[in-house]
Amino acid sequence: MKGRAWGTFVPAEPIIEGGGQPKGVSIIARDFQSVALYDSAGKFAGVRRPGSNKPIEVEGMRVTVDNLIGATGLELKVDPGVPLVYAGFGGLMLTTMVSYLSHSQIWALQEGGTVHLSGKTNRATVSFTQELSRLLDDVPERPVASLETAAEL
């Protein structure tokens, strides 16, 4: 079938979900000059012209075609921006998870025999304080005399 075609289905009885194949009339219009009618099994029932007022019997219904109006309720298209939207959403989720990670910085400055230590964290301040204390406990102490000797070198 080439070109456009409009179609509809007119049920002969109420459609019950899960009740099998519905009974009714399928109506197909290709050129708006005539319509083809088919029964529930897809068997051709006949052709009628709009305004002919000549009824046709299909599935126990008398069908008369008065007029044809072209309209569409379903439009299929491709949107090339969808992958970009999904990639943006994935990036948003990734950065949201990364924002929950703790980021800490530690600075040390030696002035003569004194070491000044400072730090900053964006989360988990209690565990950062404990970690900083453990770090200071692991630093070996040197006698003051050895520091002065090292400074002279």
From TrEMBL:
Name of protein: ResB-like domain-containing protein
Keyword Signal annotated: no
Domain ResB-like: 29-132
PANTHER family: CYTOCHROME C BIOGENESIS PROTEIN CCS1, CHLOROPLASTIC (PTHR31566)
Coiled-coil boundaries: none
Biological process according to GO: cytochrome complex assembly
Keywords: Cytochrome c-type biogenesis, Membrane, Transmembrane, Transmembrane helix
